[in-house]
Amino acid sequence: MCYVYCSFLQFSLLFLGVGLWGRINFNQIFHKLSTLSYVLFGEAKPEEIELKEDMSLESVRELLNHYKKKFKLPSNFNLEEFRLVANGFFQAEGHISCRIRGTYFSPVLALNQNLNLKSMEFFVTLWYVLGKKGSLGIIQNSSGKFVIRFSTESWELILGSFYSYFSNIYGEKFIAFQKLLDIRRLTTEGKVKSKDSLFMATKLVYSISLDGVKRKLSFSEQLKLLNLNHIEGVLPDYKDNSTSVSLLFIVGFILGDGTLHLRLRQLDNGSIWLIPMLSLPQVKNAYSAHLFNLFNDFFNSINIKTIISSNIKNETSSTEIDSKLEFKSTSKVKGVPTPDTSPEADARPLKVVEGRGIIDGDTNNSAVVSPENLNIKKMSTLRIEGITSIFIYLLPLFKIDSKYFYWKFDQYELLEKVSRLVNSKAHLTYYGMVTIIKIIYSYPHERHQTENYWLDLIQLWFKEQSNLSHSGENYIQAVYGRSELKGTIVAWKCVLPKDSQIRARQFGFKNKSESGEALKKAINYRDDSIQNWVDSLK
What we know:
By secondary structure, the protein is α+β, with helices and mostly antiparallel strands. Helix content is about 40%, strand content about 15%. The protein has helices at about 1-15, 55-70, 80-95, 115-130, 155-165, 170-185, 195-205, 220-225, 245-255, 290-300, 370-375, 385-400, 410-425, 430-440, 450-465, 510-535, and strands spanning about 95-100, 105-115, 135-140, 145-150, 260-265, 270-285, 305-310, 315-320, 380-385, 475-480, 490-495, 505-510. Keywords: Mitochondrion. InterPro entries: Homing_endonucl.
């Protein structure tokens, strides 16, 4: 108990001057901040802390240092699982390069992310499993936001433990490690450096990034400075990583560049489509096709089809691996799905249209992938769209490893909550669809339309469908009599979607005056049953 008390006392005193004790908010980058793991306080009781938006850089750095000192891996921590996630994140956000100072070559390995509680947890975990090697700190970018940064310029660390740890990466970054090995071999201290070696090492440095790293000197200027402009040479042929990607690698990639999101789209007939999506963007270069082929092979192995889009400036072209995913209504009313008068109808058909941009109707702006907001002139995006692909096949796999979503857990959580309702066909009911919209808007993603915009559309849609029923109500059917009562309505029957497993119930009457009372009872039964059913799915 003494240890627990001291931990909290020290933590309190450390931040007394910056007002941390209590609740803290940060930069409003993430509106929903998670609780730090218990490891922050060692054996102490977990406490929810938040990063305050007016904290100084020095105060945030003190917080990080305190966290690093107290950090311990949980007893059930899986090192290999985390390594695969870290490799996926490094694939998306990692940086490898090399500097030239005179004839000295210095490697650079760096990994950055906007600071929040979960990114702090991830980066400190990475720093810890890498033997507490390298530099882990906080910087402030040009817009004033705090960024957590892991980096090193040590040949020993990069080509030693880090090279083997990040062995499950691909493309430019995978080959960059091989190039660093050759640069080191050509420029090792104590070894006589020939002009041919210096030339090849310099050429390798300038080839590490296909898009080029901003340098003070061009390649030709650097050669001239080293008096190497008269030498020629051809780079070795480097092989990319052919190892299959894993689900955990994909989770890590999502942490960096990927996005899970839900699109809402209004149809011409007034209905609404719910379109769950996964977007995996990657810089378009000589290696991106190989990585996307590996992604595609993985997803195809679990019956998920993909679409790859190439974006150059504002132009979009699509290579359609899966031409269409569509759920067709089984309603007998031509051209108009009638969910509440036909329990088997799927009122929210899904259709993936070739060549459409990611912005269509209403979307999560954080998911929008464009050259402008990623500061990339050319890029490719692998997309997965659809109820079956996302809700049926992919999310159950993600659920097992959902803890590794860290600061993007809210994206997974939103889709998981909505999937429970959609998979149970709750979206075919008015209350179910309203519940889905309210869940979507409970998450802090900017959208083009307001919540009330969609709620009004839903109300109008279900009202129009109810007008197609003799009862004037959705899911309440007319029951006709027999013999002398043939052709006469004698009861109102509430029939709900089969997936609800709600028992159908009939409310009879003998005359018109009783008909109204029977209809009220049927409506109450329907509304209470649907509400209890939908609420049980939340």
